Amino acid sequence: MSERTDRLRAEVERRRTFAIISHPDAGKTTLTEKLLLYGGAVRVAGAVRQRRNQRRATSDWMAIEAERGISISTSVMQFPYRGFRLNLLDTPGHNDFSEDTYRTLAAADCAIMLIDAAKGVEPQTIKLFEVCRMRRMPIVTFVNKMDRDGRPLLDLLDEIEKVLGIPVSPANWPIGAGHSFQGVYDRWTKELLLFDRAEASGQKAAMQLASLEDPALPRTVGEEPYRQLVEDLELLHGAGTGFDHDAFLAGQLTPVFFGSALTNFGVEPFLDRFLDLAPSPLPRDAGAERVAPDAPFFSGFVFKIQANMDPRHRDRMAFVRVCSGRFERGMSVTHVRSGESFNVSRSVQIRAQERDILEEAFAGDIVGIWDPGILRIGDSIAEEGTIEFPGMPSFSPELFVSVHLAEPFKRKQLKKGLDQLSEEGVVQVFYDRRRLEREPVLGAIGMLQFEVFQYRLRAEYGVEVRLERLPFVRARWVEGEAFDADEVERKSGATCLLDAEGRPLVLFASDFRLQRTIEDFPEIKFLASVQPSRRARRAA
Ligand SMILES: Nc1nc2c(ncn2[C@@H]2O[C@H](COP(=O)(O)OP(=O)(O)OP(=O)(O)O)[C@@H](O)[C@H]2O)c(=O)[nH]1
Ligand SMILES: [Mg+2]
Fold first, then answer.
1. Which of 20, 22, 23, 29 to mutate to test the pocket of ligand 1 (most atoms within 8 A of CB)?
2. What's the pLDDT tens digit per position in 74-89?
3. Ramachandran angles phi, psi of 353, nearest 5°
4. Per-residue pLDDT reduced to its tens digit, 115-142
5. How far is it, in rounded angstroms, from Cα 451 to Cα 330?
6. Ligand 1 atom closest to Cα of 94?
7. pTM for this prediction
C-alpha cells in the first residue's frame, strides 16, 4: 500500500500541466513548437506560417489551421523534460474560439501568458487573464518577440501591472532589444546567458554563460546594450517587486521572462525556470469532496472531444484530464453521469494529431480515449462511480444561421456531422419545435465558428451546406412551469427552438425585446448559460 502511495506521489510530483494563453498572434504556437524542440519531442521545429513544401507547426495540424496560420482549437502535447512529464495545451487566441480555451483552462494547473513586446497587453489577453484569475491559477508571463523593436520594457511591465492588476516580478532581463537582443540576465542566479544565433530557427540556440563583472563584457555585447542593462538592473533593484512563491501560486503575482520564440532566444532558460516554478497537480473539488491527486483511485474528466483527427481512422476521441490515482489501459471505469461502466481498451498519449499507445497515466496527464458513444464534454469518469467534477456550462450564442443542404440526399451525413460537431462545441445546434430536424439553426459566439463548421462538414462528412444569417442577437434558455412557447412567441415576437438536449431556448432580435419579454413573463427564468442536463444520452 505505502509503496503504491509513494509511487503515486512521485509521479504526481513530476507532472506539470499548463496552458499557453494570449491574444491571437503573440506566438503561442511558435513557443509550443520551441518547447517541444527543447523537450526533444521534435527534431526540427516547423515554421508556423508555412510556405508551400515547408514543415508546419506540430500543434496547428488541422488543414484549416495551416491554411490560415491561426489556431482554432486547443492542441495537447505531452513530452518529458529533465525528469518532468509535461502536458502542454496550446490554446487558440481568437475570440471566436474562446469557449475552447475556457474549457482547456479547466484542465490546466497553471498558465503561460504571452505578451507581444511591441503590442503589450491586448484585449483577448485581458479576457483570458480574468478567467485564470477567477480560477486562482498561477500565471507565468513570457514577453515574446524581443527580436523585434518593442516598447520600453519598464513601460510594458507598468502596463501589465495597471491593466491586469497583478504585480510583476521580472525573473530575468534582456540584454539588448530588437536586432541587438542577445541574451538575458537571470536575476535569481545572477548569471548572464548569451545566445548564439542558430543556423535556422528550427534548431536550438546555443548558450554561453557570462558574468556581469567580466571586464570584457561591454566589448562582447556592445557598450550601449551593456550600459542599458546595468541601468535597468539598478532601477529594478530599487523599484521592482520581489518574488514571492506563495503569492505566485495563489495567482497574486506573476514572474516575467523575456525572449523570442522565433529565434529560440530565452526559450531554454524560461523552460528550466518555469518547471521549478509551476505547481504539480493539486487536489480538485468534486462536489462536496476534494480529490487528492495521489488518492488511491483513478478519476478524471473530459474537457474536449474531437472526431476525425486522423483521416485514416474516423473515430471520436475524448481528452481526459486525470485528476487522481493511476489510469491504466484496459481498466474498467464508470461514466459517472449515466452510471454505465466501460472498458478503456484503447488509450493514447497525444502529441497534436500523433498518438502513441499509453499504458498508464497519473494526475495531471491528458489521456486520449476512444469514446464508446456516451461521453460528453464535462463528463467525469472514475474508478469509484461517485466522483463528479464540475461540468462545463454552455454559454448562449449571439450569432445565428440556418442550415440549408445543397444536396438533399445527404441528409443523413448532415445529421451525423451536425451531431458530432455540435458535441465538440464547434457550434451549437438548435431545432425547430415542430419540424424538428428539418431546418437546424446554428448558434455561435463568432463568425469564424461557422466557417470552421462549414469547412469540416465538407472535409470530414462530404456535405456542402449554405448558411443563411438570421436576425437574432440574443438567446436565453428558459425555465419555469409557466413557460408556453406559443404564448411567448405570440406576445414577444421571439422565436422558440429546442437545443440538442431538447431544452427550450428563445431567440431575440434585440436587447430591447429580451428585456421586454423578461418583464412580461416574471414567472419564467431566462438563462444565459446552462449546465449539461443530467440525462444520459447515447449518441446515435
Ligand atoms: N519576430 C518574431 N515573430 C514571432 C515570434 N514568435 C512568433 N512570431 C510570429 O508571429 C506569428 C504568429 O505566431 P503564432 O505562434 O501562430 O501565434 P499564436 O499566438 O499561436 O496565434 P493564434 O493561435 O492564432 O492565437 C507568426 O508569424 C510567427 O512566426 C518571435 O519571437 N519573434
Ligand atoms: Mg496558435
1. 29
2. 888 888 899 999 999 9
3. -95, 0
4. 999 999 999 999 999 999 998 999 999 9
5. 38
6. 25
7. 0.90
